[in-house]
Fold these 2 entries.
Entry 1:
Amino acid sequence: MKLKQFEEIRVNERLLNQQMEDTIYEERKLRSFQEEAEDFSYQTNQIFDSMLGQFKGNQFTWYLEEQQETMRYRYNLIQDALEEELQLHKEQQQAIEDKQSDLAFDRLRLQTQENDLEVQQ
């Protein structure tokens, strides 16, 4: 009976370890996307600022300014979405760590019970 419980704990621990690795991998990908978005936003703003300087005093500048604002707005939406995803990953990691702690406690409890039985015999 106890052997079966130990095996269940081991299987669950392996599954949780895999889930944690997957979550960490996904978080790294999100951070990479976030860095790419920041770089893209910086480069785009540089281009818009340069074009605005070239067309200063021209009626075309209102269009450039509008497009630049639209890009900033979209960038902020992307960053907000990425932050939400990162927060979800942190919550998933915390849930996995909590389950791992519970499993470690269950393993310790079973080992203690097993040791108590050996001492009684």
Entry 2:
Amino acid sequence: MGLADLKKNASSCKAAFSKQMSIEEFIDNASLYALGQTHEFTQHTNVVDFLQRRDNKQATQSQQLVNQTEQVKKPFRRATFTLSEQAISDLTALSQASKMAKSKLIRHLIAEHNLLSDKDKQALYQQFEHDTQLKSLSK
């Protein structure tokens, strides 16, 4: 293979890349794609029209991304917990019964726990401590 084979052929580039977009549009579309949205590319008739549409589109998309970010909040982080064999089997059973992933189930249980009043939380903590002491005495 010679260097001449590596040259770009203008006619083949036009056929392969018929839909051209700016860097900003590419980044915006990639952001939308990452959020699970699709975007149809539209041809712009002239530079002024292109710039006006791009600026309007960026403002609209920025607002949409802000709104979605507020809804989605922060992405999840990986966490490692040490659980007893009984807790693992209980979590597995709950996951299978609810048909939810274990991590989603844990997030749901934490959200439910946060809805409890302080009095109810304290009662749960005391019951847990009582049950833990009973289990340790029976061994």
